[in-house]
Specification:
The complex is a heterodimer.
Chain A lengths: L2 E3 L4 E5 L4 E3 L2 E3 L5 E8 L6 E7 L7 E2 L2 E6 L4 E6 L8 E9 L6 E2 L3 E6 L1
Parallel strand pairs in A: 2-12
Antiparallel strand pairs in A: 1-4, 3-9, 5-6, 5-10, 7-8, 8-9, 10-11, 10-12
Chain B lengths: L3 E3 L3 E4 L5 E7 L5 E8 L3 E10 L2 E4 L7 E6 L2 E6 L8 E8 L9 E2 L3 E5 L1
Parallel strand pairs in B: 2-11
Antiparallel strand pairs in B: 1-3, 3-8, 4-5, 4-9, 5-6, 7-8, 9-10, 9-11
The chains are: A mainly beta, B mainly beta.
Chain lengths: 114, 114
């Protein structure tokens, strides 16, 4: 079975600084997708960024980028120029390419200090 | 914009009651999901449905059942609520199976069983 681990229950960052959230996963599959989801306080969870395992290039979405290390089974999220609106729970998730089910990590609560 | 709505944001029920949580999506998505969210455990899949009247068990189906009579509506049923089912329940939907298909989430229902 696949597992996803987020080792940092809480992180904090100063506004305008950069922060990296860690995620590791375990799978025997070679074809899969990885996702970072954001859950703001009292608001709906939204997709931040996704990475296809067969792509070497790290995905980027504006201030959000990932460091995908397939051999190490590591998938970290970097947030640059942090903003107050980035404060949220962040979940790393895994799905094998042929599957429907997402496997989530335990989440990291990010606090942004003004 | 995809919209996933859930019937209640907060619900308080007594032990032994039958509880219905309803989810509606407005984008003609094939797949719908019910997750349970607990601190430190992330989201865990209870059930998902890939078509009307079709369902598959997720990781933690015990104590729950589901119903999907119409494509846009997916209900989670707690036949006899227990205190260990106190949790946040999230519904999600997606267009297709596997690959990079994004799951869209509802706002969640915080259920308290006393």
């Amino acid at each position: 079975a696949q597992t996803v681990t987020q080792s940092q229950p809480e992180m904090s960052v100063q506004e305008a600084e950069t922060v990296t959230l860690s995620c590791t996963y375990d799978t025997s599959e070679s074809d899969y997708y990885l996702f970072w989801y954001k859950q703001p306080p009292s608001r709906q969870m939204i997709l931040v960024i996704r990475q296809e395992a067969y792509k070497q290039q790290n995905a980027t979405e504006n201030r959000f980028s990932v460091n995908f290390q397939k051999a190490a089974k590591s998938f970290s999220l970097k947030i640059s120029d942090s903003q107050l609106g980035d404060a949220a729970m962040y979940f790393c998730a895994y799905r094998r390419n042929a599957g429907n089910m997402l496997t989530f990590g335990g989440g990291t609560r990010l606090m942004v200090k003004p | 914009d995809v919209k996933v709505t859930q019937s209640s944001r907060y619900l308080v029920k007594r032990t032994g009651e039958k509880v219905f949580l309803e989810c509606v999506q407005d984008m003609d998505h094939e797949n719908m999901f019910w997750y349970r969210q607990d601190p430190g455990l992330g989201l865990r899949l209870i059930y998902f449905s890939y078509d009307v009247k079709m369902k598959e068990k997720g990781d933690i189906p015990e104590g729950y059942s589901v119903s999907r009579e119409k494509k846009e509506r997916f209900s989670l049923i707690l036949e006899s609520a227990s205190t260990n089912q106190t949790s946040m329940y999230l519904c999600a939907s997606s267009w297709g199976s596997g690959g990079a298909y994004e799951q869209y989430f509802g706002p969640g229902t915080r259920l308290t069983v006393t």
